[in-house]
Structures are given as structure tokens and as C-alpha cells.
Amino acid sequence: MYSFVKMPNKKYIQFYSNTKRPREIAEIVSELPGIVFQYVAEPNGNIRFTYVSENAKEIWGFSAEDAYKLGGQVLKNIHPEDMQQYRDAIARSNKEGIAISVPFRVQHDDGRLRWVQANSSPRYLDDGRIVRTGTVIDITESKLIYDDIKASEQDAHVIFRDLDTRNQQLARTKANLLEALDMLPIGLFIKTVGNKFIYANKFYNAIWGFSSLQQLQQAGWGGVRNNIKDWGQISETDNKLVSSGKTASQTDVSIIDSTGNTRYFDVTKCIFQLSPDGEDEILGIMFETTHFRSADAERRKYIADLSERNLKLERFSQIISHNLRAPVTTVMAVTNWMAGNLDPADDNGRILLEGLADATRKIDDVVRDLNDVLAPVQAQSVELVRFNDLIEDVQIPLHKEAGPNGLEIIHDFSGATDIHTVPKYLYNLFHHILATTVRQKRQGHKLTVGIKSERSPEGIDVTLRDNGAGVDMNTYGNLAMELFQMYHSHKETDFKGLPASKKQASILRSPIDINSTPGSGTIIQLRLNDLR
């Protein structure tokens, strides 16, 4: 039996009853890859299914029997995120009377998620109901493949975009590298084994008087080799380089530059390939040594002058030792004899002889100092000197000069108790430093000097601090640091020098640093070298 419903266009919709022919059709429909459905939508929105094929359970999650019983409730299996899209499509189809095809997700009760494609079209009944007939096809696999293809396409776009970005970065890097190579003060070049130039920076081009690589390439190797004095050596080195494949170096290669001047270069070359399948090329680096050769010649001349001066100073030292000290010794001996034979009642004679003896001893001290300063260090014996003993010996002659207010030396040699050095040099150095300190004492004040020693990897650091009058280093600092220019007196501009401090320190290879502030005293820092 069949039942029909009249449509607005006077066509009918057939509702199949349970007859033989509909069963045959149902069997055919069940073989189709998807769901075939038909439902009637009431004006109030209720849905009543009139037909659902038997394979609905696998695709939709509801069986045909469930659909007949539940009606529109089976739509709840549509994924919440896709529901509005589905409803909008149905509303548009009902309004415009067109067929629709909507992809959306269906969520089964067991949690499975399937992608489906719903295709349907509406028919209208006189009473306002709408009959919708259509199919639902499972497109999960196709969707996954499509998503993979789309993701792959997006990945490809990202990869190509990254490649383009990297190519731009490489281009910028190459430009920056070439600019940096052009700014280097060394010559860089790349040439083939057959002496054809591939690259040269500005410095290399300028050696031969070219402003660009193109000019160098046009001139070729012939425009270069004529200016190389050691061409035979260059050619031989290139042949060895190619045969051995090892780096080759040449020193002091003489070249006549574009101005006609002779210049000297150290050249290092190696074999490399710009491409894996390419031919061997020669990469060369040229470092100019012209100034070093000039400096070396000046240094040799300076050393020769110093040697000559040192020889003269040694001769002068011998003169001081033998020719000057002998008369001084004679004067001292005569003075002592006269003092022993002087009439006790002759006060004037006694005062005169004491003054003469004192002046002669001072002259003898000066001769000894000059002899010590001018004598070579190698001629002096190195001994162990203890700082405690050194300070005790040094301060004895200084107490008288310090005046009635006295001199106090506070020392801490726990950091370094002793040193191997030339004793008399170290004694003279400390004597003159402390003598300078005494001459800077403030009138009417006791002079206190603190001395501390510390051992470091570079040597022994000795720091001396006093509470003396100090020196204005901003005004007299450069003058104060010069040899013979450090002694301080109460006249602000009167400097008599640190007679041997700087000199003795330089002989002992000991840097000295002086920092002084008027009214706050002076800080002197020494770095003594152990001469073992």
C-alpha cells in the first residue's frame, strides 16, 4: 500500500508501507555508502522521521528504530560547535527552497567523533509542514586526509616563507661580510690555480692601484706579477701548495706598490673549494710588515745607542770608583789625622775639621750612590732581605732629620716577610722614599708612616702611607713623578726630587706609583720583583 501527500506543485510524496517492493528498495538503499533519511518538520519545530536506512547506527550513533521513536532528539549528536552552522543551513534551505550540503561533526555516545556530510532538500505540504529528504555520508577519512593535505600545504608555505626569509638574511649577511672584509687592514684574495682572480678586497686592490675587483680582473695576473720582486719564490710556493694541499706561508715578501714604494708583506695561502664539485682555488691573506721592519730597524739602532751609553756609564762608574773615591779617601784620612793632632784648646780648628769631615763623608756617600746606580744589575749579588731588618736599618739615620717631634714607623710584613733582591739597591730605595716622607712632615706634628707588604702572583706589593703635608698632584704630579723631581719642602713650588727612588725602582724592575693630597699625606705603592 502507498500513501500520498499533496504538495504545492500538485506532486505527491509517497510514504511506503510494508509491501514487497519497498522491501526490495530498502535492501538496495542499505547497500548505499551512507544514510538515506526522510523526515517531516512540523510548524512548531518537532521532527518525525518517516524513513531512515538501516546503517544509521554506525554513522550517526542512533539506529533507525531510535530515530522513529526520538524524532528530532537525534540531532543532539551534532557537535555543539557545529550545531549553529547546521541550523542556519536548514533555515536558509527552508526559506529559499534549495538543496544544501553541510559538513559537521557527530559525537557518538561512546565518545567517538565522526565527520559527516549532510545533503538534503525540502518539499512543502499544504498544512505548513516541510518534508526533508536527504543523505548523510561519512567523510571522516576524507576530512583527515584533507586536513593533512591542508596542514602540509600550510607547512610548505611556512617552509618556503622561512626559506625566503633565510635567503634574504643570507644575502644581507653576505653583503655585511663583504663590507667587513673590505674594511680590514689586510689583503684578502681568491684566485684559481691558473692565477685568475675570483675575489679581492679593497686593501688588496689598493696595493696594486686598482679601485675595484673588475679592474684587477681586467689587468689579470700580469698586472700584478711585474710589481712582485720575489715572483720566483711566489710561483714556487704556489706549486708546492697545489701539490701538497698544505697551508704555505712566506714572510717579508717585497712588493712595489702603485706609488713606486717598496712594501713588505707576510703572506699565508691555502687550498679550498667554493663548491664541492668545483676546482681547487687558492685563498690568500697578506699582512703588511713594512712598519714593523722600520720599527725593527729603529729598535736595533736604539739598542745599539743604549749599549754605547751603557758602556760609557760603566766607564764613568769605573772613573767614580777609582779616580774620584781615591782623593776623597785621602781627604778623609788627612782630616782624621789632623783631628787627632789638633790642639784641644783650638775650638775654631776643631769646628773647621768637623765640618770638613762631615762634608767629605757626604761626598763619599754621593760617590757610593752614583757608583751603585751606574753599576749594572748583573754585577750585583742577589740576597735574601727581611723587611723587618731593612726598616730597622733605614730608619736609624732618619730620626735625627725628623726633628724633635719624632718619627714613628708602623709596619705589617705578615703578607710577605722577605724578598730576594740586591740589598743595597733596596736599602737606597726605601731610604730615599722615607727621606722624602720625612721632608713632607707637617711642622709641629709627629710623622707616622704605615708600611704593609702583600705577596701577589706578579711580585710583592708594598704600600707606604704617611700623615705628612702632602703634594698637590694636579699641579705638580707630572713633575713629582719625574726622576730627581719629588722632594717636598715647605715652599710649595720647591721640589728637590726623589733622588734615587724612581731610579732604584727602575733598576729593580719595580713600578712605583705616588698619590698625594695636600693636608692628607701621601700614598706610595711599590711592586717589588723577587730576583731569584
Summarize the structure.
This protein is an alpha+beta fold. It has helices at residues 20-30, 56-60, 64-70, 80-96, 140-183, 202-207, 213-219, 222-225, 231-244, 290-340, 347-374, 387-402, 423-439, 473-481, 501-507; strands spanning 2-6, 12-16, 35-41, 47-52, 100-107, 113-124, 130-138, 187-192, 197-200, 248-256, 262-272, 281-288, 383-386, 407-415, 418-421, 447-456, 459-466, 512-517, 521-528.
Descriptive account of the structure:
This protein is an alpha+beta fold and 532 residues long. The protein folds into four domains: 137 residues, Beta-Lactamase; 105 residues, Beta-Lactamase, CATH 3.30.450.20; 80 residues; 148 residues, Histidine kinase-like ATPase, C-terminal domain (Heat Shock Protein 90, 2-Layer Sandwich), CATH 3.30.565. It is built from 15 helices and 19 strands. The protein has a five-stranded antiparallel β-sheet, sandwiched between helices. It is elongated and about 165 Å long. The N terminus is likely disordered.
Strand content: 25-35%
Number of helices: 15
**CATH fold field value of the largest domain:** Heat Shock Protein 90
CATH class placement of the largest domain: Alpha Beta
CATH H-level superfamily title of the largest domain: Histidine kinase-like ATPase, C-terminal domain
In which order are the strands of the major sheet placed? 4-3-7-6-5
Mean pLDDT across all residues, rounded? 77
Which descriptors would you attach to this protein?
alpha+beta, 15 helices, 532 residues, Beta-Lactamase, elongated, disordered N terminus, 5-stranded antiparallel β-sheet, 4 domains
